[in-house]
Amino acid sequence: MPIHRRGRHHFIAAAMRSPFKIGGFLPSSRGLARAMAAGVDIHRPGTVVELGAGTGVVTHALVQAGISIDKLVVIERDERLHTLISLQFPHLNILRADAIELDTVLAEIGVKKVNAIVSSLPFLVMPKFVREAIQEKMAQVIGEDGVIIQFTYGPKSPISIQQMRKHHLYGKRLKLIVANVPPAHVWIYRKA
Questions:
Q1: Domain 5-191 adopts which CATH fold?
Q2: pLDDT tens-digit map of 154-168
Q3: What would the pLDDT profile of 78-88 be if each residue is shown by its tens digit?
Q4: Taking the domains of the chain in order of start, what are their residue ranges?
Q5: pTM of the model
Q6: What does the angle CA 72 – CA 172 – CA 170 come to, to the nearest 5 degrees?
Q7: Residue 153: φ, ψ to 5°
């Protein structure tokens, strides 16, 4: 399901309203979305949680990768983007919520085990205390065997070495997507 012009318009408008909450002025490319979805082991038990769904390009890639609709929870904070993605994927569990409350949100819908968090959150532009609070929640909800898949436009890990140590995470770069605008790095994190 390709992104249509209205989706791009909503994304660009959201970025202009809140540049520190969106982090980019164009939605992720299909190549980036596929690279992120490829990091998910669909055979591992648990729910796949997408954070910062935007226009749904990563959501579409996750569904195309074979993630069962009953094992996918999509979270988008922006009201207009949430409405847009809900219209595109009426069969999915799409929540309008803030990632800083990730543990509470997942508990409220009965998610007990997380396979993977697939995040498009703009860590590079977030205030440090917000970024670190969200990363703490992410590390908490993946338990001992889940993973975090995160993309970034910067050359370094979007989760700092200090945060990785604090939360017992190990990270490695999966792929550089040069065709994305701007080029993006996909990282995966698991408990060390």
A1: Rossmann fold (3.40.50)
A2: 999 999 999 999 999
A3: 999 999 999 99
A4: 5-191
A5: 0.86
A6: 85
A7: -90, -15
